[in-house]
């Protein structure tokens, strides 16, 4: 308990905001003028209020004036002026304003309450002990001190919430920008990697049969050209989607239903692929289907890039509310993803799996590389009984 109380006392005092400088400069002058108009005093009594006005001006220009010293100057000045003959009672508004600003800027509840309590005690002492014959009532001023103290603490809490909201908004904006950069990086990596791997396979095949079978070489080059044109269209569509304000007219993304076409493309490019699908795969579309297609494409791209002579087995199985994709190549020892350097392909596949609530495991396999992804199946809407 004592440690908590001491920690509260050590909380720093916030500097006076620049936007409040006008209030610090103007309000005390207005209060002194109104006090002189409503219950006038002598010139000497008015001059006694000048230290209080000066204290407010010092706070306005961010001079390191401690809250307790600021409160002592204002309290002493106002109490001396009022206690002479009971005039200038309106100067007590200087005390209420001081309580407001100190409770607003102080980080410590204890110090703010003590200042408000001492201010009330001074007003009671002047009214009841120094000049009781003048009939000054201290109770309304005590209520004003309580009100301004609570108001100041409320304003401080509100400012803290505003700062937290601004920090959160900035963090969310930075997170959104970073996530968009990662998404663009994944898309460009998948698209460029798939395109180059497929084109290189076709060109390599054409080079191998160029002297023996011109027709087969021409077919391989036509396939390479078709892959290049298709990829160019995808790049243009991606750039158009990034520049568009609305995404409702974007072309549909490939999903699990296009895995057969993807496998056929790589098979025609020269990969030895076996593809098996088992389970209820109907309606496997949306984010999960797209993630499956992108993961499979990246895995096949890695095989085509690093071990094009390996045999590849691709299996897609749906069971127990999840779908499992497995891509394994074998034949040439060594991984299908380079062991050194940044593994953007593996990172992208893992991010795609996590984005839909799944998981991905990849690593060396006997004579090749293994990629396994387990993604949750999307829930189907229950049929409504008539």
Can you walk me through this structure?
The protein is 63% helix and 11% strand. It is built from 12 helices and 5 strands. α8 runs parallel beside α10. With 386 residues, it is of the alpha+beta class. The protein has 2 domains: 156 residues, no CATH class; 125 residues, 2-Layer Sandwich (Heat Shock Protein 90). Strands 1-2-3-5-4 form a 5-stranded mixed sheet, with helices on one face. α11 links the parallel β1 and β2. The radius of gyration is 39 Å and the shape is rod-shaped.
Record the SSE blueprint.
Layout: H1 2-9, H2 21-38, H3 43-47, H4 50-60, H5 67-85, H6 92-105, H7 109-130, H8 139-209, H9 214-243, H10 259-269, E1 272-278, H11 286-306, E2 311-319, E3 322-330, H12 344-355, E4 359-365, E5 368-376
Parallel strand pairs: 1-2
Antiparallel strand pairs: 2-3, 3-5, 4-5
Helix pairs in contact: 2-4, 4-5, 5-6, 5-7, 6-7, 6-8, 7-8, 8-9, 8-10, 8-11, 8-12, 10-11, 11-12
Tell how many strands the DSSP assignment holds.
Answer: 5
What portion of residues belong to β-strands?
A: 5-15%
User: SSE string, helix = H, strand = E?
Assistant: HHHHHHHHHHEHEEHEE
The percent range for helix content is 55-70%
Helical run tally? 12
The assigned structural class equals: alpha+beta
Terminal CA distance: 65 Å
Mean pLDDT: 80
- Taken together, the total number of domains comes to 2
Stretches where pLDDT is under 50 for at least 5 consecutive residues are 245-250
Shape: rod-shaped
Strand order of the largest sheet: 1-2-3-5-4
